[in-house]
Amino acid sequence: MSAHTKNIYVHTAFVVIAGLLSLQACSKPAGASPTADAVVAEVEHIAAASQVDAGRYLIKIGGCNDCHTPGFAMTNGASPAEPEWLTGDAVGYAGPWGVSYPANLRLTFANMTEEQFIDMSRAGQGRPPMPWPSLKAMSDKDLKAIYAYIKSLGPKGEMAPAALSPGVAPDRPHFVFVPQMPAAKS
């Protein structure tokens, strides 16, 4: 074996050993307690002056009003006033699932317990475009805050129209959520 080849082997062995030692030094020993970051991630939630205030904030940033409050998205959030929030909408969302209408959350929550809301949020079985993955990712504390806020508003308004099965034409305004393919190029 030439001196040059021997040098390459020694250099390679040194790099491999140094890399393995670095990985070992950075790894957590078996049975070690979770890091501070891991503990924080497990309990992340919105902090506010009250549970209702935290819920109001989550409703605002979660875009709940965009669908569940009539006219909210069309006015870029300028109206209606908060006492009218979350009363559902008769404007539907059509797609391969049929047509869904945003529920009147205030009436829905009037007959729902906090535990039922958390279970529903974790199951995420409703129709699109409801962002179930966002609710599933929330902590129980945040879901409880949303529940408390909606309950604080009290029942108001009417139930949303019933969802329509695929192929049933809606008799009211609706957004179409079906991807459109670009026209073929000649």
Describe this structure in words.
The structure is a single chain. By secondary structure, the chain is mostly helical. It has a domain at 46-168. Helices cover 45% and strands 5% of the residues. The protein is built from eight helices and three strands; from the N terminus they run ααααββααααβ. It has helices at 3-26, 36-42, 51-62, 64-68, 105-110, 114-123, 132-137, 140-153; strands spanning 92-95, 98-100, 174-176. The chain has a three-stranded mixed β-sheet with strand order 2-1-3, with no helix packed on it. The radius of gyration is 26 Å and the shape is globular.
Counted beta strands: 3
Order the strands across the largest sheet as they lie in space: 2-1-3
Number of helical elements: 8
Strand content: 5-15%
Outline the low-pLDDT stretches: 4-27, 36-41
Please provide the ordered H/E string of secondary-structure elements.
HHHHEEHHHHE
How much helix, percentage-wise, in residues? 40-55%
Shape: globular
Mean pLDDT: 83
Spatial extent as radius of gyration: 26 Å
Q: Main beta sheet: strand number and arrangement?
A: 3 strands, mixed
CA(first)-CA(last) distance: 65 Å
Class computed from helices, strands and strand pairing: mainly alpha
From the structure provided, what is the oligomeric state, counting identical versus distinct chains? single chain
